[in-house]
User: Which sequence fits this backbone?
């Protein structure tokens, strides 16, 4: 059956075009792999040590969470400069609730998420319904919410957080099952390995079914060898990370959270009507409005969403430091914006992917981590990150122009 | 030829994978108006870009002689220095700068490093007088209509001591009155000794104004016609452009007209920007099943404004009046409500308002009716693919596949994507605003065929068009709109261009 439907592959697609298109879409992942290999060599293997992988994920989780919200905002053609301040103010709110008022932590976290949503609604209102550019509204928000942070905290740090919250932000899943020996690799957490295998099996199953469905509709799909190579490659990389994590401690809780968020937001952006509307609004605002998309409501809700994600990041960041401080979250918004653009978002909006933004964030995380491992001073790290951001966007612009010219 | 001001010979220009121009020859005589015709993609704009240095010397092969001397332009500045000025279809005035500032942009009147405003404005006034534009030179250019902006562009060209003026589709966005004025102006410039090259789709204008016409097809020169010679007509040019005799520019069609679908009564709309201005005034319209109805009017008559205000109040404020669908009064407060009531509106400017140009064909087609492809908010992208593919087939959208980005398609194919998007919403009433603007003759014919098929399916079609022959060619009935009022209604049999023009220019008390 598969063989019968294969001829629907379009013969008009010339190999060079296909290659350049692929390069533009997958350039970011190739660059990510190259950067990992580079630092693995420069650090003589320290980069991919079990503990270091765990560190990279835990230390950057809040930026990655912000990047998920930020990419949706950038796809819709807006920007959010207030994310760092919202991280600070929501962290402060959660600290006051848990530490000063002794509210049980699950309730306190829920309340903090509501506060984050309200902050997003406030900004979304001015942007969507009042028509003030997001740049201005969130610049004002950056000041306002920083000021509120200081007011809430009374200009001092509040801590320590309950143990459960610290575990969520900084800790690991308990070994529900026992450790197993992996021969030369030493002991590893069985639960982590089981989860990893389940995830890989899930990915293979979903991809297989999606391919079969596409073939059923006569769409162009990867040929079987390419498909197998892609899925096998992704599975191997994933299993490698899982095994390394299992060898160190167990699964970090934030990794579980992050995985759930990435999956949920990828589905939201690619498979739901709401997600499609975000792309439509960013691609052509007027055309979207004249197609019946509720443009204002879409804009409003992506800012509410950003507020909620910022409050998640706020709780995790405060929990990790075990204290909510007045300077928390400084310049986080810039890291999240950089992650989105390195990950292939377009300045004009309408383009971008959640996975891309996460990859962009991880590229910066690996540069940060790798350079500090080899003892580079922080000014050099900043310099390199700046150049990488510029290079990534320059590559995208160049690829776009080349694609335009070859028509 | 001694009196040739410009000779381009053997021009070949290739892009990766495409030959845009192949051995093209063009000879323009001194002091004439020379038209260049061809379907979209025939290579007209590419040829003009080669001439004006947008594609610098060395990126093409062939020879250009201007006033007997070979040209090796490295950029637009080089060609302008020689007196070759091109005015592009998309006008390039800067909205917040004054007329005078725009005219002398890049060519400022300077005294010791500072701008001499007196001389700037005085010179601008003199230039404006030459093009017959009576405006204060300090007026911001955004306050001018398209027709006047076009004149400012010409004034700008005159300020550069132009000897060869190239106009790319100068009347595409102009109403008939402004077009006539522009053509008169070109005749005047010709009498002053300025040679003009004009690219146009409007063959009646070419027939009226050009001294000779060069026809391009598929990147090759087909022929150059002497327009004062015998037997040269619009049909002659068309047959050269399409390479076949196009007996009928409009497909034959017999409408089967049924019951009333949509009735608009006492429709009044006010301008959102100019306080108190009535844009549409007490308009009454009726559309019936299977009927193709035209809406004629000059630029500014309120055609688009009427359509958009009905389509979910997408334009205007203080809208009053009633809309009946199948005899029931309905409210159309949002675009979503209009779509649910079976009304579709394909916009006049498809690039700005109709398409998401960075998105692919299938997502554009599904854009107005995602609810039909989704369950509980989840989009079935396999069915989306299937639906888009079926429209690609039935509407003959020429593209690599439905994954092709719409920004890379030609105008005609983009318009078909817009039509597919609205057909997929399964409307009873389709409002098509300038459905064939800026697309070539062959694609127009296809669009007309699609319109006829839609009418045969029992849909009511309202066509808004600036081209009277088009309305006369495809409509069963035509409403004329003048200054926001419906000034008349004529049937297919009694409609003539003269009668319509009379109604379109009538001022009701």
Assistant:
């Amino acid at each position: 059956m598969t063989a019968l439907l294969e001829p629907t592959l379009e013969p008009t697609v010339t190999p060079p075009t296909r290659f350049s298109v692929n390069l533009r879409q997958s350039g970011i992942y190739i660059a990510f792999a190259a950067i990992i290999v580079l630092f693995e060599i420069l650090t003589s293997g320290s980069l991919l040590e079990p503990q270091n992988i765990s560190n990279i994920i835990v230390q950057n989780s809040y930026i990655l969470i912000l990047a998920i919200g930020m990419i949706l905002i950038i796809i819709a053609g807006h920007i959010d400069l207030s994310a760092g301040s919202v991280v600070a103010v929501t962290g402060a709110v959660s600290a006051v609730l848990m530490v000063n008022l002794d509210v049980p932590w699950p309730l306190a976290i829920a309340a903090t998420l509501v506060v984050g949503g309200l902050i997003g609604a406030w900004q979304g209102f001015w942007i969507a319904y009042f028509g003030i550019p997001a740049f201005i509204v969130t610049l004002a928000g950056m000041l306002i919410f920083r000021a509120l942070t200081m007011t809430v905290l009374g200009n001092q740090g509040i801590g320590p957080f309950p143990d459960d919250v610290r575990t969520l932000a900084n800790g690991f899943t308990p070994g529900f099952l026992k450790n197993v020996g992996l021969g030369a690799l030493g002991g590893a957490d069985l639960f982590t390995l089981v989860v990893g295998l389940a995830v890989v099996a899930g990915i293979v199953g979903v991809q297989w079914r999606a391919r079969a469905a596409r073939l059923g509709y006569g769409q162009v799909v990867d040929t079987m060898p390419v498909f197998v190579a892609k899925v096998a490659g992704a599975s191997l990389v994933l299993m490698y990370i899982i095994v390394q994590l299992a060898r160190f401690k167990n699964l970090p809780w934030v990794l579980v959270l992050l995985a759930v968020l990435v999956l949920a937001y990828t589905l939201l952006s690619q498979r739901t009507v709401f997600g499609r509307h975000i792309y439509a609004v960013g691609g052509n605002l007027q055309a979207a409005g004249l197609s019946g998309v509720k443009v204002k409501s879409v804009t409003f809700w992506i800012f509410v969403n950003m507020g909620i994600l910022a409050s998640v990041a706020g709780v995790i960041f405060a929990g990790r430091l075990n204290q909510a401080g007045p300077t928390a979250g400084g310049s986080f918004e810039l890291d999240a914006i950089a992650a989105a653009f390195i990950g292939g978002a377009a300045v004009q909006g309408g383009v971008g992917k959640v996975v891309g933004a996460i990859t962009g964030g991880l590229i910066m995380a690996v540069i940060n981590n790798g350079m500090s491992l080899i003892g580079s001073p922080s000014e050099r790290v900043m310099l390199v990150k700046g150049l990488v951001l510029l290079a990534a966007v320059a590559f995208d612009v160049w690829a776009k122009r080349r694609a335009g010219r070859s028509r | 030829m001694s009196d040739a001001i410009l000779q381009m010979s053997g021009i070949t220009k290739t892009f990766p994978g495409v030959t845009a121009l192949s051995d093209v020859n063009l000879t323009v005589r001194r002091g004439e108006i020379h038209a260049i015709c061809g379907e979209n993609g025939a290579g007209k704009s590419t040829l003009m870009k080669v001439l004006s240095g947008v594609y610098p010397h060395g990126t093409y092969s062939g020879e250009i002689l201007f006033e007997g001397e070979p040209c090796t332009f490295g950029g637009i500045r080089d060609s302008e220095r020689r007196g070759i000025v091109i005015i592009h279809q998309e006008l390039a005035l800067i909205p917040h700068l004054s007329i005078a500032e725009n005219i002398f942009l890049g060519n400022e009147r300077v005294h010791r490093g500072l701008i001499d405003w007196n001389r700037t404005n005085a010179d601008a006034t003199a230039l404006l007088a030459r093009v017959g534009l009576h405006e204060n030179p300090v007026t911001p250019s955004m306050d001018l209509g398209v027709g006047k902006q076009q004149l400012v562009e010409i004034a700008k060209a005159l300020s550069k001591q132009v000897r060869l003026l190239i106009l790319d589709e100068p009347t595409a966005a102009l109403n008939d009155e402004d077009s006539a004025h522009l053509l008169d102006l070109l005749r005047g410039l010709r009498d002053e000794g300025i040679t003009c090259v004009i690219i146009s789709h409007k063959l009646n204008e070419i027939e009226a104004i050009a001294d000779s016409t060069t026809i391009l097809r598929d990147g090759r020169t087909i022929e150059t016609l002497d327009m004062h010679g015998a037997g040269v007509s619009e049909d002659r040019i068309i047959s050269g452009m399409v390479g076949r005799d196009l007996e009928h520019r409009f497909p034959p069609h017999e409408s089967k007209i049924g019951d009333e679908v949509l009735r608009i009564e006492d429709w009044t709309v006010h301008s959102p920007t100019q306080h108190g201005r009535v844009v549409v005034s007490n308009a009454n319209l009726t559309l019936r099943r299977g009927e193709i109805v035209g809406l004629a009017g000059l630029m500014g008559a309120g055609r688009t404004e009427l359509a958009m205000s009905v389509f979910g109040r997408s334009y205007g404020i203080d809208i009053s009046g009633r809309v009946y669908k199948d005899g029931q009064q309905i409210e159309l407060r949002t675009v979503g409500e209009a779509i649910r009531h079976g009304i579709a509106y394909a916009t006049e400017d498809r690039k700005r308002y109709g398409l998401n140009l960075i998105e692919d064909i299938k997502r554009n087609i599904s854009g107005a009716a995602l609810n039909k492809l989704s369950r509980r908010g989840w989009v079935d992208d396999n069915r989306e693919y299937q639906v888009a593919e079926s429209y690609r087939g039935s509407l003959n959208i020429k593209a690599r596949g439905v994954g092709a980005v719409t920004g890379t398609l030609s105008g005609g194919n983009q318009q078909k994507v817009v039509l597919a998007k609205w057909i997929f919403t399964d409307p009873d009433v389709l409002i098509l605003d300038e459905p064939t603007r800026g697309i070539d003759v062959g694609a127009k014919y296809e669009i007309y065929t699609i319109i006829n098929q839609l009418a045969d399916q029992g849909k009511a079609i309202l066509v808004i068009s600036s081209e009277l022959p088009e309305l006369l060619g495809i409509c069963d009935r035509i409403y004329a709109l003048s200054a926001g009022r419906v000034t008349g209604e004529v049937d297919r049999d009694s409609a003539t261009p003269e009668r319509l023009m009379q109604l379109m220019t009538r001022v009701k008390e």
About this structure: The radius of gyration of chain B is 24 Å. Chain B is about 30% helix and 25% strand. The mean pLDDT of chain B is 87.
